[in-house]
Design brief:
GNAT_dom; Aminopeptidase; acyltransferase activity, transferring groups other than amino-acyl groups; Acyl_CoA_acyltransferase; alpha+beta; N-acetyltransferase domain-containing protein
């Protein structure tokens, strides 16, 4: 599956906010996008990240977030419930990272992310995409991958 990444719009944020994982995973934290839009007409995500949607056939098929700090790129991502468990996770992760590296045109040595310890399926996807576990704090695991 090939994804096209474009900047998140307020309508995309509203759609993503309604993704329901039937209690398997926490709902996505979209509040910062709505707050920043109400206050200044711009969309700024959690931790001041940049948000992008992944489109397939012009349909919102994923969320990808990027935060750059020196030579590290932190990512946040999600697939809609209809695509979870379909075997496309590692491709989605790799395509999103490639997009981010090309979009920002900055030197990045490390990609990092955090995942809940209970999200075993996501951890497997990240490991398949080349991430390794670095540390665990509470119910969060930090994972990293070199570029």
């Amino acid at each position: 599956m090939d994804f096209t990444f474009v900047p998140l719009t307020i309508d995309d944020a509203r759609e993503i906010k309604n993704w329901d994982y039937n209690g398997e995973f926490d709902s996505l934290y979209m509040t910062p996008y709505f707050t920043s839009f109400e206050e200044g007409g711009v969309l700024i995500g959690p931790g001041e990240c940049d948000g992008f949607v992944a489109l397939v056939n012009n349909h919102v098929s994923g969320l990808f977030e990027f935060t750059l700090c020196e030579e590290e790129m932190e990512i946040g991502l999600a697939l809609p419930p209809s695509l979870v468990g379909k075997g496309i996770g590692a491709d989605f992760v790799n395509q999103g990272i490639q997009f981010g590296l090309e979009h920002y045109e900055t030197k990045v040595n490390v990609i990092k992310l955090e995942v809940e310890t209970t999200n075993v399926a996501a951890i497997r996807v990240y490991e398949k995409a080349g991430f390794r576990r670095i540390k665990q704090t509470g119910n969060e695991i930090e994972m990293r991958r070199n570029v």
